[in-house]
Amino acid sequence: MLNITSLSNIARSIRAYGVKRAVMSVIITNTSSKSSKRMMAFYWRALSTKTRPVMPTMSATKTCVEKPVISSSSATDEFDKLYRNLDLEVRGHDPAVIRSYKCFILESAKHLDIPLVKTYEPTKIHDRRNKKKSVFGHGKHFVQYEARTYYQVIILENVTESTANTFLEYIERNIPEGVTMKVTKHEIQPLPEHLRERPSQLADS
Question: Do the Cβ atoms of 145 and 131 come closer than 8 Å?
Fold first, then answer.
C-alpha cells in the first residue's frame, strides 16, 4: 500500500521528471532489499536517452528593433526668409540707459555682420497729470506728476530669418530693467495670384 508520502512523491516526480521516472522512484522507495533497489537503479540507467524525460530549458531571446533611417535626399530643404528692414524701437525713462543699450545693440549687429541703415532719437514725450494731495477735500491743493519717455530707433537691413532670430534672442536676454523694445520686420512677398490677373471688367473697358 502506498501512503500519503508516496502519493506526494509521485505527484512531485510527475511534475519534475514525467510518469516513468515517478513510477520508478516509488518502486525503489517501497522495496526493502538493497538488491531490488540496485536492480531498479540499473534499469533506470539502462534506459536510452530517447525514452528519458527531457527537462525543460529556458532560452533567452533578444529582439532588435531597427530604427528607420531618414536619407538626406528625402528631407525637404526650406529657404530662409529675407527681411528687407528690421526696425528696433527702444524706449525707457532714463536716457543714459537707453544710449548704453543702443551701443550694445550696434556692437552685437556689427559682430553678426548685419548692415546698419541709420539710428535716430525721436522727440521725448512728457506725460503730465495733476492729482489732489488729499484723497477727499482740499480741492485747491494739487500736485503734478510728470513721466518722461525717451526713444532710440535702430534700422537694420537685409537680415535673414535665422540671423534675426539669433540676434533678437541675444539682445532681448540682455535688455535692462525698465526698458521696452518694439521690433518691426519688413518682408518682401510676391503679389497674390488673385491680384496678378486683371479683372475682366477693366480688360473689356
Answer: yes
- Residue 62 inside a domain? The answer is no
Does residue 101 sit in the same domain as residue 175? Answer: yes
Q: What is the pLDDT of residues 118-161, one digit of tens each?
A: 999 999 999 988 888 877 766 778 888 999 999 999 999 999 99
The C-alpha cell at 103 is 551701443
What is the CB-side half-sphere exposure of residue 131 using CA atoms within 13 A? 7
Query: Which residue range(s) make up the domain with 20?
Result: 4-46
Strand partners, 183: 88
Picking from 26, 80, 77, 21, the residue whose alpha carbon sits closest to that of residue 51 is 21
Residues 13 and 111 in one domain: no
Cβ neighbourhood burial of 152 (10 Å; 0-12, 13-18, 19+): buried
Q: Read off the C-alpha cell for 104.
A: 550694445
The tally of domains found in the chain comes to 2
C-alpha cell at 32: 526493502
Read off the C-alpha cell for 186: 519688413
